[in-house]
Specification:
6-stranded mixed β-sheet, 10 helices, single chain
């Protein structure tokens, strides 16, 4: 009898329909200064499309708990109940602030792996992270000094250190990391939000990014690890406490704050599916553009087992858009 716990077919093309739906619904809120409405539109559209996917899914990495935004909640069952039993990581909008301010780089993302293989950070919202692409796989160590890691990446990619580009989330908590990168002589590309896109950029060739460093969201760390599995990249993380309450909660849950989590700790399977659709156009993906009769979108779809990476440009029509959002996109 076939083992239903193991995804043995490529459901990535079904998953991208969920990120397209979320992106199409949310893009109407671009620049309108309303994070929760944009996120809520994406959540509703993604949930609707998830119910059509052939899988028995449980959300392990949801979103919304950190900022009381609308959410696909941890423990929620998704899919039509048929097919493989899987863990699901979702971020209907990675970069809600980018969307609300009309800035580039917001994405809708989803990742799926066999049941029981995704790391659950519980209520620890932040992680220290380091991520690289295939050329530097196996060359990083989060416990080592930043300069050492940069030197290893430079060696692996046959680059002088001054040509290594590090993407870092522009936050006060990353000031010391920024100082160390500058002291090492590497270049920095700052991002204001959305470090899933930053990690993917480190994993993809031709982006101009060689590695990601810094403290960012824990849910985003697990999602990024899924993408990097598909890209044959590498990632390490360590839970990062904001204050004593985080340390107390981690102790109560038995979470080791000193443990370096490898990419295999973050997602313990090589049969990972990942899909992302651009909401607002950025370096990684084009955003949703409304045109006469509908809209266009660009997506990235990957499967780790096969190594398949697809970029999909899609034309959508008014009827589909209205079914997704319940709103009107044109006048009769």
């Amino acid at each position: 009898m076939r083992n239903e716990r193991i995804p043995d077919r490529n459901i990535a093309m079904e998953l991208v329909r969920t990120t397209e739906a979320a992106a199409l619904a949310a893009a109407r809120w671009m620049g309108r200064g309303d994070k929760n409405s944009g996120d809520g539109a994406a959540v509703d559209a993604m949930r609707m499309m998830l119910d059509t996917v052939d899988m028995d899914g449980i959300i392990v990495i949801g979103e919304g708990e950190k900022d009381e935004a609308p959410m696909l909640f941890n423990g929620e069952r998704v899919g039509n109940g048929h097919g493989p039993q899987v863990d699901v990581a979702v971020d209907p909008i990675d970069g809600t602030r980018l969307l609300s301010l009309g800035r580039p780089g917001a994405l809708s993302v989803i990742a799926v792996a066999p049941r029981g293989t995704m790391y659950n950070p519980h209520d620890m919202f932040y992680m220290e992270k380091i991520a690289v692409g295939p050329a530097a796989k196996g060359c990083i160590d989060l416990s080592a000094p930043i300069q050492w890691n940069i030197e290893q990446v430079a060696k692996a990619k046959d680059l002088p250190i001054e040509e290594v580009t590090v993407v870092i989330l522009d936050r006060d908590r990353n000031t010391d990391i920024v100082d160390q990168v500058r002291a090492a002589g590497a270049r920095i590309r700052f991002i204001t939000d959305g470090d899933v896109a930053g990690a993917i950029s480190a994993g993809l060739a031709g982006t101009g990014v060689d590695m990601l460093l810094g403290i960012g969201g824990s849910p985003e760390g697990v999602v990024a690890a899924c993408a990097l599995k598909a890209l044959e990249g590498d990632m390490q993380c360590r839970l990062w406490p904001r204050h004593d309450d985080d340390r107390k909660m981690a102790a109560e849950r038995g979470l080791d704050m000193t443990r370096v989590l490898t990419i295999d700790d973050l997602v313990g399977s090589d049969d990972v599916f990942f899909a992302a659709t651009g909401v607002t156009g950025g370096d990684l993906l084009e955003g949703v553009e409304y045109v006469a009769g509908g809209a266009t979108s660009e997506s990235l779809v990957m499967r780790a087992r096969s190594g398949t990476i697809r970029r999909i440009q899609t034309e959508h029509h008014w009827r589909k858009l209205e079914n997704i959002s319940g709103g009107r996109y044109h006048d009769d």
